[in-house]
Recover the amino acids of this structure.
């Protein structure tokens, strides 16, 4: 039977504080759980915003990752020690009224652990989004470890677990963009660039990418954007606008970009107390819509393997998204330093 292991992980002690590396102990997996040795984890904007928005503290940060199964609990089937896996942080229960209707993205009882498995000085440490993958080891529900059956480097596979599934899924499954539709993507970061990919896969006729960084706009062009704009530059109205920044000012600009009957999809994580304003009478008269997007409205067991396969074959390009490659010791500082020469900072574990 596997025993308790020692690890280190990045923990936020209190809102507004600086995340710090702490020594941890990680218990064996319980029934229906697996323990994963992390190999790679991406630093997402949502991780950074936990300093401001975490629902509880202390909290073990990180949610976008890939690793290898180290041990499995009782009743786990289809996974074994040594298997490469992608971390899925939103496991639907499969039983609630939403899941029974095929709406797994609206699951009312997302699966977590039966009890805490990670401790520091005897104190339980909750995991961000049931993942907490900025640590050497994590324990997950078995369904949260998606087997990686494609030939894809783990540092790229890690990005599928948030940037890719959220971005591509926003276009394909949240908005259901159709061939010939016009799309605007506000923000060309890791998620926004994958919205561009999703819009291209959906057959969008026009794809407008908006970002202040010319280098990121070129990455958008390489992924299928047909028009590039700096913020504030004009373009024709679109059927779908995706806000991927989490800034109410950008959201309001996205509303102004909508054609009659069009839809704004909110993908970026705004502050919990943020508000946006728009003119509801005009919105009503133009029969427009606003939709929220979490995890690309994905059905994880089905969609994550498909996304991994697309990434492995190059349909979803990932290599040029990676800027800095750091180790766990450098992660504290990475929260305040931008990616260098790319979009995503990736943590590599020994």
């Amino acid at each position: 039977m596997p025993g308790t292991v020692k690890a280190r992980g990045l923990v936020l002690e209190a809102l507004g504080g600086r995340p710090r590396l702490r020594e941890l102990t990680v218990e064996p997996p319980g029934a229906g759980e697996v323990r994963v040795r992390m190999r790679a984890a991406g630093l997402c904007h949502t991780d950074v915003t936990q300093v401001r928005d975490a629902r509880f503290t202390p909290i073990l940060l990180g949610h976008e990752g890939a690793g290898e199964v180290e041990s499995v609990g009782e009743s786990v089937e289809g996974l074994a020690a040594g298997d490469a896996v992608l971390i899925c942080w939103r496991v639907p229960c499969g039983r609630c009224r939403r899941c029974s209707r095929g709406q797994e993205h609206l699951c009312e009882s997302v699966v977590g652990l039966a009890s805490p498995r990670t401790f520091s000085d005897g104190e339980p440490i909750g995991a961000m989004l049931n993942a907490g993958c900025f640590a050497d080891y994590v324990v997950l529900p078995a369904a949260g470890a998606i087997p990686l059956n494609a030939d894809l480097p783990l540092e790229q596979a890690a990005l599928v677990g948030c940037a890719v599934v959220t971005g591509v899924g926003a276009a394909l499954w949240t908005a259901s963009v159709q061939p010939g539709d016009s799309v605007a993507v506000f923000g060309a970061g890791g998620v926004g660039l994958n919205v561009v990919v999703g819009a291209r896969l959906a057959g969008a006729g026009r794809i407008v990418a908006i970002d202040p960084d010319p280098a990121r706009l070129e990455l958008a062009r390489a992924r299928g954007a047909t028009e590039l704009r700096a913020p504030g530059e004009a373009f024709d109205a679109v059927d779908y606008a995706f806000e991927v920044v989490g800034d109410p000012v950008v959201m309001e600009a996205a509303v102004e970009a909508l054609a009659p009957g069009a839809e704004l999809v909110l993908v970026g994580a705004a502050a919990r107390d943020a508000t946006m304003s728009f003119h509801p009478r005009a919105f009503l008269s133009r029969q427009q819509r606003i939709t929220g997007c979490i995890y690309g409205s994905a059905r994880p067991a089905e969609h994550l393997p498909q996304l991994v396969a697309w990434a492995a074959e190059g349909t979803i390009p990932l290599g040029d998204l990676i800027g800095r490659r750091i180790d766990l010791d450098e992660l504290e500082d990475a929260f305040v330093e931008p990616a260098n020469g790319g979009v995503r900072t990736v943590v590599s574990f020994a």
Notes: The mean pLDDT is 96. The chain has nine helices and 19 strands. The first strand starts at residue 5 and ends at 12. Residues 154-174 form the longest helix (21 residues).
